[in-house]
Every structure is written in C-alpha cells, then in structure tokens.
Amino acid sequence: MSAAAASAARVADFGADDAGSAHVRRTREFIDAELRLDQLLALTHGIASAGSPALQLVLPAVAPVVRPNWLALTGLAVPARLVARVGERLERTLHETPWAGRAIEDALEAVARAFDVSVHDISALASVLVLGDRTPLPVARLLAVMGQERTLARLRSATRDFKAMQMVG
Q1: Read out DSSP for 23-66?
Q2: Residue range 60-95, pLDDT digits in tens
Q3: 63-168, which class in CATH?
Q4: Fewest beta carbons within 10 Å, which of 2, 78, 97, 118?
Q5: Residue 156: count of CB within 10 angstroms of its CB
Q6: How far is CA 23 from the centre of its chain?
C-alpha cells in the first residue's frame, strides 16, 4: 500500500465521526489529488527519459486551466475544418463511455473510424484539446485518471474556443 493510500485510509477512519467537517473534507480532497498525481506520474515510467522532469508531463492534467497550443495540430490528418466537429463527437462519445482506460481507448477508436483517420491522430487531437499540447503519455489512461467531468469540460471549452477562432479568422 502506498503512503498516499495509507493516509487516505487513516483519513477515512478519522472522518467517520466527523464527515461534515471542512477540515476532513479538505484533507480528503488533498489525498484524492495526491493519489491522482501518483497515478499520473506512474504513467511516465518508461516514457520520461532519465533526468527529464516527469512532473512536467503530467502538470497539464492537474492544472486548473490549460490553453490549447493550436500549432500542435499541425501534421495531423484531421483538417482544421473538422477539428470542432471531431471535438464535439469526442465529447459526446466520451460522455456515453464507462470511465475506464480500455473503454476510453475504444471510444477514441470509434471516433477515428467515424472520421476515417488514425486513432493516433484522434488521440493527439484529444491531447491538444484536453491537455493543451501533444503528450507522449497514453492518452486514454491519462484521461481516465483525470476524470470524466474534467475531461469533458476541457473538451467542451477547447472545442468552443476553436470554433470561435475559426469564425474570427
């Protein structure tokens, strides 16, 4: 059992009598965030090169807000005119998906088939929309750890921003 999991168990025991207290609630939120960060950092094993800061790979997943780097879409087989439609389809498909790594991978594959592009390009697009840039980390597993609510909110926001940018440009 990791130190974070052991701490979470102690907090759960402590909070059993006092579940309504703000202190216990904040402590639980902190422990949840710590567990999420541990899970995200575990995704970097074997990907982050020696001496490279693994934390930089996962910070966009825990940041309150990210701004998409639209230039990161360059080279994808998803034309700019379809980015918003693909983003909307991703949001709808992921909304209906049970929130687990394999189911998320299946959803990404379904969207790739629907637009006749590779799952690699759909994953890269999802990465830019949700994390702000492309990532070498496994996107489906990263989204699973981020959580459905946060992922869908970021997809919605980035897709809306892309559509607005297209109308202006």
Answers
A1: HHHHHHHHHHHHHHHHHHHHTTTTTSPTTS-HHHHHHHHHSS--
A2: 888 888 999 999 999 999 998 999 999 999 999 999
A3: mainly alpha
A4: 2
A5: 16
A6: 28
